[in-house]
Please model this.
Amino acid sequence: MTAAVARRGGLSLRIKLTLSYAGLVVVAGIALFTVGFLVLRFIPDGNLWLNDGSWAPNKRDLLQVFVKYTWWAIGTLVVIGLVGGWLLAGFMLRPLDRITAAVRRVGDGALGERIDLPGPRDELTELADAFDAMAARVQLTIEEERRFAANASHELRTPHAIIRTLLEVGEADPAGRDVDTLLRRLSATNDRSIAIMESLLALARGELGETAPVDLAVVVAETIEEQGPDAAARSIRLHPSLRPAVVTADPTLVARLVANLVRNAIVHNVEGGVIWLSTRSDDEGAVLAVSSTGPRIDASLAATLTEPFVRGAGRTRGADGPQGSGLGLAIVSSIVRAHDGALDVEPRAGGGLAVSVRLPASRRA
Model:
């Protein structure tokens, strides 16, 4: 945590504004009196006799009176500038007290604190709104990290607990244990643990590296070739409709994105199900769509599937069939954000999911 910066004492902003206001008023007054003094220079020096026989003050008389009262006027302007400037600065800076108090409370850990500064848009309300938006993002990020850490510890604890149980059962019955079955279960559980940790690392490293032109159609075709046997083992049919869709992206992350989408569609499908894959390009970039059959999913649950360890069928999994880490769509979401893209996850009417990924032609700087 960064230590607070030690600063030497200085004038407050209110005092600085007060002095500025007072100085401006005094300067304006001096400028006005200077103009009056210049005007007096055009008055004749001698006495001015009027038609009725009386006389008017001459330049010397007027200058004496003008100079005498000019000092009193400037002193009055100084007082008015200081008092009025102090009151006006206090009124204008009052929202800063509210902003400062809210910032300190957030700094002390009250992440739910907001400024909520009322009034029309100006510099202070824009500052307050920007801080409120930043605090909301920080709060959401920290809550997601806490939930992610809790879910990760749960997911990693489960395979280790299974390994310990298998070992305890094997030690309790040395004569009746099946070593081959025990080793096979231990290996499967260990593979699951490795898959979870690799997914966690991929999610943590979901930052954009070096980019290059990538054709989504080629990546999808390669992924189908790699994961086709897993789909065939469950009698899942793949229906690709691939058109060139070139984007400037990180090739490694894009390959991981496509692999996770296809893997997710296989793992959460039904026996004999179908997966539709398509790629296309338009003026804004490229679109990858992966739709699959599967269990029915509520729209509210589908909206949360991009969060880590959230699954459409709950947290429990059967012993048979492919295993998922619960991080597939979370990693996809992270990669899409790194490329300034858009991810859309919706349930299909007949069951399963329809996932659409849009990547811009080039990432914004």
The chain is about 55% helix and 15% strand. Residues 123-172 form the longest helix (50 residues). The beta strands are 48-49, 55-56, 212-215, 237-242, 246-249, 274-282, 285-292, 342-347, 353-360.
